[in-house]
Write a structure and sequence with these properties.
- By secondary structure, the protein is of the alpha/beta class.
- It has three domains: 95 residues, 3-Layer(aba) Sandwich (D-Maltodextrin-Binding Protein, domain 2), CATH 3.40.190; 77 residues, Periplasmic binding protein-like II (D-Maltodextrin-Binding Protein, domain 2, 3-Layer(aba) Sandwich); 84 residues, ACT domain (Alpha-Beta Plaits, 2-Layer Sandwich), CATH 3.30.70.
- Helices cover 27% and strands 33% of the residues.
- It has nine helices and 15 strands.
- The strands form two sheets. Strands 1, 2, 3, 4, 5, 11, 12, 13, 14 and 15 form a ten-stranded mixed beta sheet that branches. A five-stranded mixed beta sheet has the order 8-7-9-6-10.
- The longest helix is centred in the last third of the chain and has 11 residues.
- One of its GO terms (cellular component) is cytoplasm.
């Protein structure tokens, strides 16, 4: 049976993403994103699913940096999930927001609900956890007047009451999750793909004027649409960066090799991180 690792414990948005596109597989939750990626690399699981970007808070930098600098795994799929953040409390704590002293959640979830917390829970202290599921677990095991930010699945898994639904600041809240695997033949997603994408890692040559413009031109004149370009430090010194570029089409035998050859002629290092299908999940 195929095994899937995800950012756990139960009740995380990553678990929701896994449940939405896989069924019948063995699923294992990991405490952190690096632990999940390591599990795939070591063969403990066949597939790993980790968050990569949120529409409100942007890139999950831990995921990018770990995949680039520590463990390089092929990207074989992407899952886009609508995110609804709720304020979760124990069922006996349902009367007054002013009683809540602490709010637990992942740092991204807390940031996504900044305005709600500012207006309604400004006196409460926010506490960061490794995941929204872990926050719900902490609240369920406590007798103190505390709350968690998480999803409906977390409320069900840990027996919590949804005090307030949809407390995120912006309605169009989605998160992208990467599907990682050294065995793409084992990846069987039950939904029809919506599109395809190729992700490239490009490192610029040092001290070459106009290099970024030349890189973008290599895609532009071939009419390759870029849905995202992001710089991250190479960790080799100030001012040294690599670029992650998402191209909205699958890798082919003509355009992409042409781009790669042109960029390498400029002194760039080019790596294809993956060419893969994209799946969009509908709001429950």
């Amino acid at each position: 049976m195929t095994s899937i690792g995800y950012l756990g414990p139960k009740g995380t948005f990553t678990k929701m993403a896994v449940d939405s596109v896989f069924n019948g597989e063995m699923k294992n939750g990991y405490r952190t994103i690096p632990e999940c990626i390591d599990a795939v690399d070591k063969g403990e699981v066949d597939i790993g699913v980790v968050p990569i970007e949120n529409a409100i808070e942007g890139t999950v930098q831990l995921t990018i940096d770990y995949l680039i600098h520590q463990v390089r795994l092929p990207v074989v799929g992407e899952i886009v999930v609508p995110i609804q953040q709720h304020l979760l409390v124990r069922k006996e704590v349902t009367n007054n927001l002013s009683d809540i002293q602490e709010v637990y959640s992942h740092s991204h979830a807390i940031a996504q609900c900044h305005q709600y917390l500012h207006r309604h829970l400004h006196a409460a202290t926010t506490k960061h956890t490794s995941s929204t599921g872990k926050a719900a677990e902490i609240v369920s095991n406590s007798n103190e007047p505390i709350a968690a930010i998480g999803n409906r699945l977390a409320a069900e898994e840990y027996g919590l009451h949804i005090f307030q639904e949809n407390i995120h600041d912006y309605p169009n809240n989605h998160t992208r999750f990467l599907v990682l695997s050294n065995h793409p033949e084992k990846v069987h997603i039950k939904h029809k793909k919506d599109s395809e994408k190729t992700t490239m890692l490009i490192t610029l040559p040092n001290d070459q004027s106009g290099a970024l413009h030349q890189i973008l031109s290599a895609f532009s004149w071939r009419k390759l649409n870029l849905s995202k370009i992001e710089s991250r430090p190479t960790k080799t010194g100030l001012g040294n960066y690599f670029f992650i570029i998402d191209v909205d089409q699958p890798y082919d035998d003509v355009l992409f090799p042409g781009v790669k050859s042109e960029l390498e002629a400029l002194g760039c290092q080019v790596t294809i991180l993956g060419t893969y299908p994209v799946y969009h999940m509908l709001q429950n």
